[in-house]
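Hey, I was hoping to borrow your eyes for a little while. I've dropped the whole record in just underneath, so have a look:

——
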Amino acid sequence: MLRLNCFIQTSAENRAEVLEAAKRLTAESLKQDGCIAYDIFESATRPDVLMICETWSGQAALNAHSASQVFVDEVGKMQSLGSLKLETFEF
């Protein structure tokens, strides 16, 4: 399995739009084959940081997710409104 933590740093002005994009991405990702878990977390100490935590059954499922139109659209939107940092763990 693969676990990804995607940290999104954004301004106060863009936060609501980033959160909506993350919610759309989460809702659609949960429907995809191989998605074990997908959730959004808000930092209690840094209002400018959100995190998407996702778990996939394997690399093939993650590759399909990364190529999906919802991923391209919503991640592109988040990248235009903030900066993203990705951590990947295999277990």
Remarks:
- Strands lie at 2-10, 35-42, 49-56, 82-90.
- The chain has a mean pLDDT of 98.
- Residues 41 and 51 are 5 Å apart (CA to CA).
